[in-house]
Amino acid sequence: ETLDKGLEKSKTTFFSKLSKAVAGKSKVDDDVLDDLEEVLVTSDVGVNTTLKIIDRIEARVSKDKYLGTEELNTILREEIAGLLSETHVGEDVEFTTPSGKKPYVIMVVGVNGVGKTTTIGKLAHQYKKKGLKVVLGAADTFRAAAIDQLQVWADRVEVPIVKQKMGSDPASVAFDTLSSAVKQDADVVIIDTAGRLHNKVNLMNELTKVKRVMQKVVEDTPHDVLLVLDGSTGQNAFEQAKQFTKATEVTSLAVTKLDGTAKGGVVIGISDQFQIPVKYIGVGEGIEDLQVFNKYEFVDSFFG
Ligand code: GDP
């Protein structure tokens, strides 16, 4: 299973840290709870979510004073799955689009380097495999490389791309993309946007304008604002989630680079802190390395 392979490192690390923390101890006491707190924090679950989990486990310990460390595993799983459930109502999204939304418009946000372009390419590929007609929009006009990279993925996946020259108005690119998609009777539109965080007011203004202009072509768009975060960056990912959720209404998350990282805990902390569902996870650089997030599989892999 790719997910198992992808999460191998986080699994080993979290699980081995946990095992070390409870080694030689038969019941869950304050020492075990302190150690568990440290294991969760160092696995990038984040301080607030860690404290929430510890509180819940303390509540269970106060009911059952002789709670054994063997049960800790099961209880932790339940608590973590429970936290993920709070942001994951209903079934997992497959690579389909909701009915009555044609074209279905996804605006993708995130800072440079997190895997935004790659995620767009992988996503386009999955939709195309489902027989859906996809159009990409290169509205990250700030860097020439961003436009070129998206073009590379458009060629690889064999989907049309709408672009203008570097420095042009992102809102204008988004407008053209949606107009073209409507004309082509496309099913899905994926718009790449600039990921500059150094100027928050500009970022907010730009994203607001892109949305406003999109709505001139297709009402109530974008249907999804997908924030891409690099799962291997720990606290940076939290900080980016904070900034982007301030700048625009983020409706879903994609967490990349969960292969080869010991930081899978970021998924738990971020979905809990921001109450935004993780829709996709990136588990490699290849075109097929995007998975629909499944909390049960995730928790299983995390614990081994
Ligand atoms: P962007 O600047 O956010 O658009 O980032 P790119 O999509 O160009 O990706 C930056 C780098 O991360 C590239 O080398 C990608 O191949 C790599 N990358 C993207 N997603 C993943 C992933 O899920 N796993 C791994 N290992 N690498 C990834």
UniProtKB/TrEMBL annotation:
<feature type="binding site">
    <location>
        <begin position="110"/>
        <end position="117"/>
    </location>
    <ligand>
        <name>GTP</name>
    </ligand>
</feature>
<keyword id="KW-0547">Nucleotide-binding</keyword>
<protein>
    <recommendedName>
        <fullName>Signal recognition particle receptor FtsY</fullName>
        <ecNumber>3.6.5.4</ecNumber>
    </recommendedName>
</protein>
<keyword id="KW-0342">GTP-binding</keyword>
<dbReference type="InterPro" id="IPR013822">
    <property type="entry name" value="Signal_recog_particl_SRP54_hlx"/>
</dbReference>
<dbReference type="InterPro" id="IPR000897">
    <property type="entry name" value="SRP54_GTPase_dom"/>
</dbReference>
<comment type="subunit">
    <text>Part of the signal recognition particle protein translocation system, which is composed of SRP and FtsY.</text>
</comment>
<dbReference type="Pfam" id="PF00448">
    <property type="entry name" value="SRP54"/>
</dbReference>
<dbReference type="GO" id="GO:0005886">
    <property type="term" value="C:plasma membrane"/>
</dbReference>
<dbReference type="GO" id="GO:0006614">
    <property type="term" value="P:SRP-dependent cotranslational protein targeting to membrane"/>
</dbReference>
<feature type="domain" description="SRP54-type proteins GTP-binding">
    <location>
        <begin position="277"/>
        <end position="290"/>
    </location>
</feature>
<dbReference type="InterPro" id="IPR027417">
    <property type="entry name" value="P-loop_NTPase"/>
</dbReference>
<dbReference type="Pfam" id="PF02881">
    <property type="entry name" value="SRP54_N"/>
</dbReference>
<keyword id="KW-0472">Membrane</keyword>
<dbReference type="InterPro" id="IPR004390">
    <property type="entry name" value="SR_rcpt_FtsY"/>
</dbReference>
<feature type="binding site">
    <location>
        <begin position="192"/>
        <end position="196"/>
    </location>
    <ligand>
        <name>GTP</name>
    </ligand>
</feature>
<dbReference type="InterPro" id="IPR042101">
    <property type="entry name" value="SRP54_N_sf"/>
</dbReference>
<dbReference type="GO" id="GO:0003924">
    <property type="term" value="F:GTPase activity"/>
</dbReference>
<dbReference type="InterPro" id="IPR003593">
    <property type="entry name" value="AAA+_ATPase"/>
</dbReference>
<dbReference type="GO" id="GO:0005047">
    <property type="term" value="F:signal recognition particle binding"/>
</dbReference>
<keyword id="KW-1003">Cell membrane</keyword>
<keyword id="KW-0378">Hydrolase</keyword>
<comment type="similarity">
    <text>Belongs to the GTP-binding SRP family. FtsY subfamily.</text>
</comment>
<comment type="function">
    <text>Involved in targeting and insertion of nascent membrane proteins into the cytoplasmic membrane. Acts as a receptor for the complex formed by the signal recognition particle (SRP) and the ribosome-nascent chain (RNC).</text>
</comment>
<dbReference type="GO" id="GO:0005525">
    <property type="term" value="F:GTP binding"/>
</dbReference>
<dbReference type="GO" id="GO:0005737">
    <property type="term" value="C:cytoplasm"/>
</dbReference>
<feature type="binding site">
    <location>
        <begin position="256"/>
        <end position="259"/>
    </location>
    <ligand>
        <name>GTP</name>
    </ligand>
</feature>
<keyword id="KW-0675">Receptor</keyword>
<dbReference type="InterPro" id="IPR036225">
    <property type="entry name" value="SRP/SRP_N"/>
</dbReference>
<keyword id="KW-0963">Cytoplasm</keyword>
